[in-house]
Write a structure and sequence with these properties.
NADH Oxidase, four-stranded antiparallel β-sheet, two-stranded antiparallel sheet, 7 helices, 6 strands, 17% strand, globular, binds flavin mononucleotide, oxidoreductase activity, Malonic semialdehyde reductase
Length: 196
C-alpha cells in the first residue's frame, strides 16, 4: 500500500480518508466480497440529492463474462490496466424526473456526489477506485441495455491495490498520488474572483 502522506500534505485539519483516496492503476487479483461491495454501494445510497430523488444508478461487472462486456467499450489505454480490476462499475444517472416536470437539472451533480461517497467508503475499506471517462458512451449504453433518459458518466475500476511492477512501464511512472491546488485558488469570499 502506498503511503499517501509522503505525497500529500493538508494545510487544514480534515479526516485522513480524503487524501487516502487516490486512483492507482495497479490491481491485485484479490476478489471483492459481496458484503464489501454492498457496503460501498450503501455509502452511495446516503448521498444528498435534489428533492431526494436519488438519480444515481450503478451497473457492476465482477464475473469474467460481464467484465468482457465492459472491456468492449472501454478505451484501449484504460483496458491495459483496468482489465485486472475485479469489479468494474458503470456510474449512470436518471436525467428525467416527474416532480421536476421533465429534466432533473441536478442529476449529474447528485450522481457525482454518490460516486464520491462510494469512493471514500471504498478507501475506508482498504480498496482502491479509479474512475474513467475514457470509454465509448454509446456502445456502453447499448451493451448494458441502458434505456434513453439515462446518462453514463464514468466507469469505475474497484479492487485491492497490487504491485506497481504489474503495470506497463509508462504507467508505473504515473503510479503516485497527485497533488492539489491550494484552497485560495478556488475559493473567494463575497464575489467570484476573476483570477481564482
Ligand atoms: C470523471 C473522471 C474521468 C476520468 N477518466 C480517466 C481515464 O479515462 N483514465 C484514467 O487513467 N484516469 C481517469 N480519471 C482519473 C483522474 O485522472 C484522477 O482522478 C485525477 O488525476 C486525480 O487523481 P486521484 O484520483 O489519484 O486523486 C478520471 C477521473 C474522473 C473523476
Amino acid at each position: 500500500m502506498t503511503d499517501v502522506n509522503q505525497f500529500r500534505k493538508t494545510r487544514y485539519d480534515i479526516d485522513p480518508i480524503y487524501i487516502k483516496r487516490w486512483s492507482p492503476r495497479s490491481f491485485s487479483n484479490q476478489k471483492v466480497s459481496e458484503e464489501v461491495l454492498s457496503s460501498v454501494f450503501e455509502a452511495a445510497r446516503w448521498a444528498p440529492s435534489a428533492a431526494n430523488v436519488q438519480p444515481w444508478r450503478f451497473v457492476f461487472a465482477s464475473s469474467e463474462q460481464d467484465k468482457e462486456i465492459f472491456l468492449s467499450f472501454i478505451d484501449e489505454g484504460n483496458v491495459v490496466w483496468c482489465k485486472n480490476a475485479p469489479v468494474l462499475i458503470a456510474v449512470i444517472s436518471k436525467m428525467e424526473e416527474e416532480r421536476f416536470g421533465g429534466n432533473n437539472p441536478a442529476h449529474a451533480f447528485d450522481t457525482g456526489t454518490a460516486w464520491g461517497f462510494l469512493s471514500l467508503e471504498a478507501a475506508r475499506k482498504g480498496l482502491i477506485t479509479h474512475a474513467m471517462g475514457g470509454f465509448n458512451k454509446e456502445k456502453a449504453k447499448e451493451a448494458l441495455s441502458i434505456p434513453d433518459g439515462y446518462q453514463v458518466h464514468a466507469i469505475v475500476a474497484l479492487g485491492y491495490q497490487g504491485e506497481k511492477s504489474s503495470l506497463e512501464e509508462a504507467y508505473q511512472k504515473r503510479e503516485v498520488p497527485s497533488p492539489r491546488n491550494e484552497v485560495e485558488t478556488f475559493v473567494s469570499e463575497g464575489v467570484f474572483r476573476e483570477n481564482m
